[in-house]
Amino acid sequence: MKIKLINLLIILVACEPAFAVLSVDSNTPKTITADKIEYDVKSKTISTIGKTEIKNENGQTLKLNNSNISKTDGTFSGNNIELWLGSNVYVFADSIEREDNMTIAKDAKFTVCYDCDKIGNAWEIHATTIKQNNYTHMLYFRNPVLWIYNTVPVLWLPYYQMPDPSVKHKTGILMPDLQSTNNMGTQINLPVYISISDSHDLTATLSYLTKENPLFQLEHRLNIAHGEFRTNGSFTHNREGKDRWAIFHNDVFELGQYARASVFLERTSDKTYLQKYGFENYKPYLDSGARVELFGQTSYAVADAHIFQDLTTSGTYERGNITTISGDILPNIRGVYQTNPFFKETYALFNADVLGVAGDQTDMQRLIGDARIVSPWTLWGGNRVTVSLDARYDIYNFDKTQMIDDTQFTGIKSRFLPSGYVEWGLPLFNPSENWTHVIEPRARLTIMPHLDNELFLLNNDSAGALLSDAILFSDNRFSGFDLWENGTFADYGAQWSAFNTNNNISVFVGQSYDFIERADTDPNSGFHNGASDFVGRVEYSNLKWIDLKTRFRLSRDNFSLNHVETSAKIGTARNYINVGHIWAQQFIDLQTRDDDINELMAGVGIQVTDRISLKFNSIYNATLKTFQQHSGGIFYNHPCYYLALSYRRDNAVKEDYIGNTTFQFKFGITIDGQQY
C-alpha cells in the first residue's frame, strides 16, 4: 500500500552527517510505503505495520518495521531502523523512539562511509544508545566503539558527545597533527576550535616540541555585514630565554559601493623566527600599514601608508638579488581620472601621486602631476594609429637626503618632462579551414627632451631598467617614478599568432633604439647606445595538456642568448610536470663577467590510483650547485578520511637559522566532502 499525505506528513531533517530528527510538518509532501497503514483521526496518529519506507522531498530514505507517528506531540517509535541521509551517510538501530526533545536509538550504528569500499565501510561507530537533543543538536553516544572496516575495533569510550553536522560551528578539539624537524625535534600540534557565533570564531593551537619550549598559535576570524577581520599570531619563550613571536593581521571594510578601507599588520620579533619555526615565509620584508580606495566609473584613488620590517641580512635576499627596502612610506596618495571621449575615441587621462619616505635619518616628499591626451584611430586597410601628448611635473622636498653625487641636500627640487608618442600597428588575418593566422607589425616613436637632471636622488624607488618584451611600447621603461626615461627612442617588433579549436601559438620579437647617448648604461640591462638587444616571447597551449611560455633576450651583435625565462606545465590536473627556469648572463662592467644567474624550478604530480597521489617541488640553484628548497609527499584521499606524509627541506642560511628538514604526518576525517 502506498499513500501520499498532503496535510499530515513526516519530515526527515537531515543533520548531515549525523542522526536524523523526525518531526511533523503540514506543508511538505512525503511518501510512506508500508504493508499496512492506519490513521487514527481522534489521536491524529499514523501506525504502520510490517516493512515501512518513508521518503522525504530531499530523497532521504527511512526503512523500519511497525512505526507509530503522532502529529500532536511529535512522538515517534519504530524497530529495525535503517536511515540513509545521503549516498554514504547511514544509521542503523534496533529501535528508535522520540519523546519531547530527545530522539533515542538503541543498539545503533552510524557511519558516513556506507558502501564506500568493496571490503566494507571504512569506519563505523557502534553504541548501545545514541541520543540526539533536537534543540541543542548534540549527539550523545553511550559505550561507543570505533570500528575499522567492520573488522577491527580501535577505540572504546564509556561516553562521547559531539554536535550533529547541522551545527556549522561548535567549540571542541580538532584533529592533531605531527611533524618532525632536524632543528626543533618532534612537534605535536593540538588545535582547539572555539566558536563565538556563526560569524566569529578562533583556533588556538598548542605545539609541543621536544628540542624547544612550547609554541602557542592563535587564528582569529570575524565577519561583519560589510567587512572581515583576520588575525594570525604565534608566541614562544625559547630555551635561551628569548621571547619570539609573529603577528599577521588584515582588516577589510566596505565603505559603500565606491569605497573600501583596509588595515594590515605584519611583524615579527626577529629576522629568522618565521623560518626557524616552519611558517614558510620567504619574503624579504614584512609590510604594515593602511589603505583607503575610492572607485568610480572612470576614476580611481588610493591613499596608503607602509611601515616595513627588513628580514634580510645583507643587500641581497637568499632567493635572488632583491633590493632591500629602505625607509617607510608615509603617505602614498595616487589618483587616476579618465574623461569621456571628446570626439571619436579621443580622451584625456590625469594622474597625481604624492609620496612621503622617512627612514635612515632622511625625509623626502614627492609630488607628481601628469596629464595626457590619447587619441586612437583605425584608418584605411585596418591600420591602427595612436597619438598621445603628455606633460609631467615633479616636485621634491628633501631633508638631509643623499644625492647622486654623494652629497646631502635639504630643500626643494623640481623637473618638468613633456613627451609624446605615435604608435602604429597593422593586424593581418589569414583564416583557413584548419588554422587562423594573424601577423601584426608594430612600431612606436616616443619623443622626449634630453635633460641633465634625469636622476638626482641616490636611493630611489626604481631598480633601473631591464629590457624585456613587457616594457616595449611603453613611454617609461623604468620600474618606478624617480628614474626618468630620457630622450627620444623607438620601439618596433612583430607578432605572429595562429590558433584553431585546440591550439594557440604566439611568437613576438622586438627591439628598442635610443637616438641619444644613454648615461651610465647598466651592462646587464640589454640597452645600448643606439639599438638594444633583441627581446621576444614564445607561447604555446593546446588547451588540454601543455602550456608553454618563454621570454628571452638575444645579443644585438651576434644573436647569442643573454637572458631566458621559461615556464611549462605538461599533463593534466592529476598527472603533471611543472618546470620553470631562469638563466641570465651577469657582468660587473662591460669587460668583466660575473657568475650567471641559473635557477631551475620543478614540480611533479603523479596520481598513482584514484586515491593515492605523489607530489614533489624543488628549487635548484645551478650557479651554486645546491638545492635552495624542495618538498614532497604522498597523499591518500579516501571518501571518508585522508592521510598525508610530507617533507620540506630549506637550505637557507641566515643568522641563527641554518637549513631545516621537516617531516609532517596528517590524518583527518572527511564528511560530506569536507576535511576535518
**Could you tell me the radius of gyration in angstroms?**
34 Å
**What is the averaged pLDDT score?**
84
Let me know the largest β-sheet: 26 strands, antiparallel, barrel
Shape: elongated
List the defining traits of the structure above:
single chain, about 675 residues, mainly beta, 26-stranded antiparallel barrel, 43 strands, about 65% strand, elongated, disordered N terminus
Topology:
Layout: E1 2-5, E2 9-14, E3 20-25, E4 30-40, E5 45-55, E6 61-70, E7 76-84, E8 90-99, E9 102-111, E10 123-133, E11 138-142, E12 145-148, E13 152-156, E14 159-163, E15 172-173, E16 177-181, E17 185-197, E18 200-209, E19 215-224, E20 227-237, E21 243-254, E22 259-268, H1 273-276, E23 285-295, E24 299-310, E25 328-338, E26 347-359, E27 362-378, E28 384-402, E29 408-425, E30 428-431, E31 436-447, E32 489-499, E33 504-514, E34 530-541, E35 546-554, E36 561-571, E37 576-587, E38 593-607, E39 612-621, E40 626-637, E41 641-654, E42 657-671, E43 674-675
Antiparallel strand pairs: 1-4, 2-3, 4-5, 5-6, 6-7, 7-8, 8-9, 9-10, 10-11, 10-12, 11-14, 12-13, 15-17, 16-17, 16-42, 17-18, 18-19, 19-20, 20-21, 21-22, 22-23, 23-24, 24-25, 25-26, 26-27, 27-28, 28-29, 29-31, 30-31, 31-32, 32-33, 33-34, 34-35, 35-36, 36-37, 37-38, 38-39, 39-40, 40-41, 41-42, ...
